[in-house]
Amino acid sequence: MAKTVFSLLDTPKTLLSVLVDPDNQTEKSLHKMAEEIVSCKVDLVLVGGSLLLEDHFEKAISILKKNTSIPVVIFPGNNYQISRAADAILLLSLISGRNPEYLIGQHVVAAPQIRESGLEVIPTGYMLIDGGRISTTSYMTQTVPIPHDKADIAVATAMAGEMLGLRSIYMEAGSGARNSVSIEMLKAVKKAVSIPVIVGGGIRTPEQAEELTQAGANMIVVGNILEKQPELLMEISLAVHS
Ligand code: 1GP
User: Fold this and answer.
1) What is the pLDDT of residues 25-76, one digit of tens each?
2) Can you give the pTM of this predicted structure?
3) Is the CB of 202 under 6 A from ligand 1?
4) Which of 73, 92, 94, 175 to mutate to test the pocket of ligand 1 (most atoms within 8 A of CB)?
5) Can you list the domains of the chain with their CATH numbers?
6) Does the C-beta of 90 come closer than 6 Å to ligand 1?
7) CA Rg, the chain, in Å?
8) Which residue has the higher pLDDT, 43 or 79?
């Protein structure tokens, strides 16, 4: 049997993932992106977005699947981002927020379709952390992020997620964050839970990627870099993998 995506995530080795927002891409740019992803030895691709203005979702997944051999995982912005062409879905429950719609509501609507798709489901506690500006996620979900310097709140939230049976934690500073998740907070969360911890938002230098790797992140996610400074992706990949 092929390895599950979860088993790739659940190892001491840090993975590098890129987040592709289908709305920002054309067919041509997706092909180019697939080349970068392969040449920079990216381990996994996340696909999803907050809006999806155009019907690019299915096409983006199929282009990335055809042109790379790495897992393509759905990072859903809402309950209609489901495709059987992907390998897995991070089923995100926004455990840092108190908006029932993003804790369980959208999941109830999507569950039958997810089951039908046969996708591998990775139940994930999504924790929004203040990244120094109002993030799209915070606005769209109408939730308040965990303050940047409150590691104890992040720890208790991650613990509760693990106790509820979630299988991974995603610490999100928000796309384009001024400050990525702090090393102190990541270390504290890693110490408190034994499930994999994913970190994303505002990571734009190899130094940041290296520090987060050393602090124990199981996966580092970059989005903007791939779109705006793809030349940095190779350095970030080296920082994560070496
Ligand atoms: C994925 O939101 C991130 O978790 C992507 O953030 O675009 O800032 O890399 P950036």
Assistant:
1) 899 999 999 999 999 999 999 999 877 666 789 999 999 999 999 999 999 9
2) 0.97
3) yes
4) 175
5) 15-241 (3.20.20.390)
6) no
7) 16
8) 43
Phi, psi of 120 (to 5 degrees): -70, 130
- Rounded to whole angstroms, the Cα distance separating 177 from 134 reads 8
Section 93-111 average pLDDT? 96
| 4 burial level (CB within 10 Å; 0-12, 13-18, 19+) | middle
Question: How high is the pLDDT of residue 24?
Answer: 84
CB of residue 177 inside a 6 A radius of ligand 1:
yes
Which atom of ligand 1 lies closest to the CA of 222?
Answer: 9
- Quickly list H helices, the chain: 5-9, 27-39, 57-67, 100, 106-117, 136-141, 151-163, 183-192, 206-214, 224-228, 233-241
Closest C-alpha to ligand 1, atom 2: 175
